[in-house]
Amino acid sequence: MTKVFPINPFSWPKCFSFGILGAMSHYQLIARVLTLINLLMSFQAFAAADLSLININELNQDNKSLNGGGVSLGHYGKYRFREFRSSTDIDLRYLNHKKNIEWEISELYTSVKSKKASVAIGRKRLSWFSQEDFWLLGQLSGRRNFDLLDEKSNGHWGLHFKGRQGALHFKFFVSYLYQPERNPGLDIEDGKVVTNSYWESLPPTRTTILGRVIPIHYTLEMDKWYKYALKKSLGLSLGHKGKDYGVDAFVIYKPEPRIRINAEAYYDGAIDRVVVNASPIVNHHMVYGLNSYLGKKNGRLSLGFLLVDPQASYGQDFSILDPLQLKESNRTFLSDYFKIEPRYEKEVIGSLNFQGHRKDFSYEFGLIKYFTDHELGTDDFYSNLIKWDTAVGGKLSWKPGRQFSMSGSYRFDLVKNDQLLNASMRIRLAQGWHTGVELGMIKAPRSSSYWSNYRTQDYLKAKLNYSF
Q1: CA-CA to 96 of 20 to 30 Å: which in 7, 29, 167, 450?
Q2: In which order are the strands placed within the sheet that holds 206-209?
Q3: Mean per-residue pLDDT, 222-226
């Protein structure tokens, strides 16, 4: 009778050394080898990383702070082990002239998928409104914001469920963890607002009182970190998909992607300064959406609507602002130079889009319309933002082969006459090596426009990157 030894994987080298393996049953050995091979074959991975040298040059003579170089590292990966799937999308950038590091984890999640359903845990994008990224809305998802015209969005931490039953499709999202937009980062040092970004628009540094120019001194009142991070979100989407058409509606209650700044200001005669006490708050909003499309990927017409309510509430467990906080948020300070007036106004947005795809060419053309009549603020520091009135735009991408690719986008506001142009080109030099350039230009003739704060931010960016 053959004696069979129990095998510990950590003792395998010793087993080989002393020939104990020969005492094993041949069937048991074959079973273990096949199990190991099956585990190895069950793991599949696709991962890519880009290491880039960057040089940014300003194109406006009155903006010298933009020139500089830096380095960026990006990682994108898809992993699969048996029924488990994971995804990562991480970016890091260092700009020498700012002496600061920008980073973002846009996606990081693990999911389990069956034929009719999937559950994901982690940070995953909510792609519930198709035109949000192109029009840089930042309502459903926060933006990465490495650059002013950066279209990349970030996901939401939480539990993501997706399922279907016949032609009916449904999605569910719930979270108890909130991460706002990280970039551009703002801080207050020695009474001044500073940023790690080369493009961020900063609040004024002085005002006037009785004809005298008075400096502004900023202070920041921060609460405990968990009072910003432990915020709740809940979303539901229902849709019907046919062969060449689809329609869906969704509602989501969550914190706004960007932290608001409430402030009160007063004149301090002892230091001859206007003191502005800024306090960050996390405001929840309700977002309702409706999407419909007709056609396939090679030619699809889409129509969508968004209604954003920053004063909505969902039950006692999902309260937004207590009366004291709401009173604080409505405080106003007026001067000849600036105004602090936080606003909580509803927004209604409609979009129409047509997109198509060919072998080496893709395109899309769109229209966006704000149906709200009120005027919200135009600055990033204090107010809610309206970026468009009635605008048209388009995007083209051409990749004839592995050696060369180029793309460009253009947006034009028919009412405010704002124009945004972004174009890029990439050339393959050798295996893994690429070089390219990117151009960004903004024209905003009206001071009431959101984009007027950035009209001196035209740039030309050169890159040399290695992919591995």
Answers
A1: 450
A2: 206-209, 212-220, 273-281, 260-268
A3: 87
Measured distance CA(441)–CA(456) in Å, rounded: 9
pLDDT of residue 135: 94
Separation of CA 44 from chain center: 27
Confidence of residue 259 (pLDDT cuts 50, 70, 90): confident
Structure tokens belonging to residue 249: 């509606």
- Return contacts of 55-61, CB within 8 angstroms, 24+ apart: 55/461, 55/462, 55/463, 56/95, 56/198, 56/459, 56/460, 56/461, 57/459, 57/460, 57/461, 57/462, 58/456, 58/457, 58/458, 58/459, 59/441, 59/458, 59/459, 59/460, 60/456, 60/457, 60/458
The pTM is what?
A: 0.81
> d(Cα 273, Cα 271) in Å, to the nearest integer?
5
Please spell the DSSP secondary structure of 406-457, one letter per residue: EEEEEEEETTT--EEEEEEEEEEEETTEEEEEEEEEEE---TTSGGGGGTT-
Min mean pLDDT across 67-81, 94-108, 119-133, 308-322 is at 308-322
| Residues whose CB is less than 8 angstroms from the CB of residue 214 and which lie 6 or more positions away in sequence, other chains included | 206, 207, 208, 267, 272, 273, 274
Amino acid found at 152: K
Rounded CA separation 446/413 (Å): 11
d(Cα 195, Cα 188) in Å, to the nearest integer? Answer: 9
- Per this entry, what is the length of the chain? 468
CB atoms within 10 A of CB 224: 8
By the 8 A CB rule, do 312 and 252 touch? no
Contact present, 194 and 210 (Cβ < 8 Å): no
What residue type is assigned to position 347 of the chain?
Answer: E
Which among 435, 424, 467, 355 has a CA at the least distance from the CA of 147? 424
Contacts of 131 (CB under 8 A, 6+ apart): 137, 302, 304, 351, 353, 366, 368
**Cα gap 280→99, rounded to integer Å:** 25
Q: What confidence tier does 7 reach under pLDDT thresholds 50, 70, 90? A: very low
Detail the DSSP E strand segments found in 59-165. Answer: 68-81, 84-95, 100-113, 117-124, 156-165
pLDDT at 37: 53
CB 108 within 8 A of CB 70: no
pLDDT of residue 8: 34
Share of the chain above pLDDT 70, in %: 79
Q: Which of 169, 346, 350, 319 is nearest to 249 (CA)?
A: 169
